[in-house]
Amino acid sequence: MNTGRIPNRVKDEGNSRELLENLRVILDSIDEGIHVVDRNGVTVLYNKVAAQLDNLKEEEVVGKHILDVFPSLSRETSTLLQVLRTGQPICNREQTFTTYKGDEITTLNSTLPVKVDGKLVGAVEVSRNITLMREMAHRIVDLQVELFGRREGRRETESEGARYTFRDIVGESECILELKRKAARAAASSSSVLVYGETGTGKELFVQAIHNASPRARGPFVAQNCAAFPEGLLEGILFGTTKGSFTGAQDRPGLFELADGGSIFLDEIDSMPASLQAKLLRVLSEKCVRRVGDTKVRRVDVRVMAAMSRPPLDAVAEGMLREDLYYRLNVISLGIPPLRERREDIPLLTAHFIARFNAQLMMNVKGVSDEVAHLFSVYDWPGNVRELEHAVEGAMHLLDGDIIMLEHLPDNLRNLATHRESRPAAANLRAGGTAPRVPVKFQGDFRLAVADIESSLVRRALADAGGNISRAARALGIPRQTLQYRLKKLGIDPKVAQAAKSTRA
To answer: At residue 362, what are phi and psi to the nearest 5 degrees?
Structure first.
């Protein structure tokens, strides 16, 4: 007798279809390619972004084996099939393949095993297309090959790629003058240089100046940001590739070969993957490179200069920089102080940028108002010299007179000025008073008093750090080089400070 009930099997099939359809809707809303296969390597889910990346349609992939759709891959080279075989995830792996339509695609994949009750039932891959990025990287290298291939016989005194010299480093503060003296001495050698400082402090400015003041000035200067490309691309860019080493690979020299006889600058070195850091360490040790997929070793004569935004020892402690690579690079160390630690240079830098943009924009700006000068002097400049440069440039584009006023500055600076003006009055009202506070009258030499306070703070930090300058600098929140300069200025011996603590104890 028919009771009108739907069999459980039919209900389960209906629920499964509904669940699968809901899952497709969710996956199609994600802006990265999602490819799911079962334990046999047959595609069960393939979202719209993945189809766009591979220039395929969903129905051309779903229900088919990986190797039927991507015949250039194999069980060894397919990241999905590797995960099915090993059960281990693969993160940020570059993969170049050809679809059955003949399109060559390069993707960056992260592939994870799918397990139910501890049993492997499939794999899911998240991909993004880096084909255009790869092509761009190869074009950059090809252009550099063409550029440096013509360097024989050129008469310029400065290297192609390095425009700045020590004359371009603006500043009269003692810490900058000392840094320029140290960098000038470093220019005479071919030892590795490690530069660190916050974003916008001028790290590459110093690196280029060192190159142009060195015996390698007539050689090439090649720069590469280590955070700009994924691992596979970066390896080929730095060390070169050999035809056939992977799909689409051609015989190309890397940047180390192009920099032969000159200098290479590796920015954000702490963003370089650990495996490439190991390869870089071999290049520094052995003075030779091996292209990707090649057995031949090529000797190179290159000075390596690297930079990072954080203190190097912090990067080592966080596992972002190999300790052995740090010691190899840190032959000469330059810590660039932030702008807030050399405020006396702000008027010079402001005048320098006004003069530069006067020439570029054909203007005749005389300077800044007193309010702007004061604001510039008290602002902390988290973007450092680059932020000051952009503030001046932006103001000059809005200017209709010859003096930069508060209203010409970026919103964040104008808001700060307004806040600073209203803060004393607001504080006074909150306190219930009506009259402004009377400042304390100081009797004596202000500079000596400040020096005494600074000396006391530095001595205490050194004592607490056991005489370790790096730890003391971190406790004070200043770069190590800045602390070294202040110790010299204040006449403090770290060993004496440490002994003083021991005596107190």
So the answer is: 55, 55
Per-residue confidence (pLDDT) for residue 140, from 0 to 100: 60
Asked if 165 and 298 sit in the same domain, the reply is yes
Q: Answer whether 160's CB lies under 8 Å from 299's CB.
A: no
As a whole number of angstroms, the distance between CA 194 and CA 335 comes to: 9
Indicate whether this model's pTM tops 0.90: no
In tens, the pLDDT along 29-38 reads: 666 888 999 9
Note whether 67 and 139 are same-domain residues.
Answer: no
**Separation CA 443–CA 420 (nearest Å):** 27
Give the range of the structural domain holding residue 314, as residue numbers without chain letter.
133-150+158-335
Q: Are residues 216 and 350 in the same domain?
A: no
Residue 193 sits at φ, ψ, to 5 deg, of: -130, 135
What's the sign of the alpha-carbon dihedral 85, 91, 94, 98? positive
pLDDT averaged over the chain?
81
Q: In this structure, is residue 116 part of a structural domain?
A: yes
Taking each helix axis from N to C terminus, what angle separates 131-149 and 231-239, rounded to the nearest 10 degrees? Answer: 10
Q: Where are the beta strands (DSSP E) in 268-318?
A: 288-289, 298-299, 303-308
The DSSP-derived string for 121-171 is EEEEEEEEE-HHHHHHHHHHHHHHHHHHHT-TT---SS-TT----GGG---
Report yes or no: 212 and 159 within 8 Å, Cβ to Cβ.
yes
Length of the chain: 505
Handedness of CA 243, 244, 249, 253 (dihedral sign): negative
